Amino acid sequence: MANKWRMHSNPDNLTHILSGPNTKAELQFPVSRVDRLLREGQGAYRLSSATPVFLTAVLEYLIANILDLAGKEACTNHRVRISPEHVEMALINNENLRRLFQPGAFSQPAASPHLPEK
């Protein structure tokens, strides 16, 4: 039986050899860690094998959106690095993310943000 972790000379076959849940779903976040945290949380007695993959994909999508908005916020402030204040301003200025993250969820108050008029 061939060792599935052995490196072969053909890089095209590498995805077939190393086929974990992260590779199959093309995710960067660790599916196994999300699975472990779900099972340790005692929230559900039974979990489908697709549940941690789906939750990992949702978390990765949310973080990518937040970082994209925070990067744009940093660019408007003529900064190269994203700071926690940029992340907070991005969360406050986006209506959907503002509803998802309540105002009490931030660790320190930033400068008064520009809130759009309703």
Question: Top keywords for this entry?
Answer:
single chain; 118 residues; mainly alpha; Histone, subunit A; 6 helices; 52% helix; nucleosome core; chromosome; spermatogenesis
Please write out the topology.
Blueprint: H1 14-17, H2 21-25, H3 31-40, H4 51-76, H5 84-93, H6 95-100
Helix pairs in contact: 3-4, 4-5
How does this structure look, described?
One of its GO terms (molecular function) is DNA binding. Residues 25-91 form the Core Histone H2A/H2B/H3 domain. With 118 residues, the chain is mainly α. The protein has one domain (21-105): Histone, subunit A. Helices cover 52% and strands 0% of the residues. Helix 4 (51-76) packs across helix 5. The radius of gyration is 20 Å and the shape is elongated. The mean pLDDT is 80.
CATH superfamily: Histone, subunit A
Q: Judging by the overall fold, what is the CATH architecture?
A: Orthogonal Bundle
Amount of beta strand: under 5%
Can you tell me the residue ranges where pLDDT is under 50 for at least 5 consecutive residues?
A: none
Shape: elongated
Report the helical percentage.
40-55%
**Count of helical regions:** 6
Indicate the radius of gyration in whole angstroms. Answer: 20 Å
Mean pLDDT: 80
Oligomeric category = single chain
CATH class: Mainly Alpha
CATH topology: Histone, subunit A
- End-to-end CA span: 65 Å
Order of SSEs, N→C? Answer: HHHHHH
Largest sheet: none
Got a strand count? 0
Number of separate structural domains? 1
Structural class by sheet pairing and helices:
mainly alpha
